[in-house]
Automatic annotation (TrEMBL):
Residues 10-29 have a biased composition (Polar residues). It comes from the Eukaryota. This is C2H2-type domain-containing protein. InterPro entries: Znf_C2H2_sf, Znf_C2H2_type.
Length: 118
């Protein structure tokens, strides 16, 4: 929800600078335009800010259709549901091994690269 929008009170603020060139004088990530008023973290979109704010409230709104487990972010729910479906969308181009998470594929590829060097 947005202040003054009639959608309830929330800790949202939009930086006033709308320049398309990044402000390299700040510690904010490039493209960050939304600031959490609770902790001051800068985020690049209103959606990212809303997900981030759930860390402060503990509000989990995405529910697994298989087991009912709740998640802060929809992408985390999709990752979790792979436990139930067996989906492994990430494939190693070298050996064909499949993984449920991109991070596991990256770790696998790093290990494979080390094996090739030795």
């Amino acid at each position: 929800s947005y202040p003054g929008s009639g959608h309830g009170g929330s800790s949202l603020s939009r930086d006033s600078q709308t320049s398309l060139t990044p402000d390299t004088s700040s510690n904010e990530p490039q493209g960050a335009a939304f600031t959490c008023e609770t902790c001051g973290e800068a985020l690049s979109s209103i959606t990212n800010l809303q997900i981030h704010q759930r860390l402060h409230t503990g509000r989990k709104i995405h529910s697994c259709t298989f087991c009912g487990k709740l998640f802060l972010a929809k992408f985390k729910l999709r990752e979790h549901e792979r436990v139930h479906t067996g989906e492994k969308p990430y494939t190693c181009d070298t050996c064909g091994s499949t993984f449920t998470h991109a991070s596991n594929l990256r770790k696998h590829q790093q290990l494979e690269a080390l094996k090739v060097r030795t």
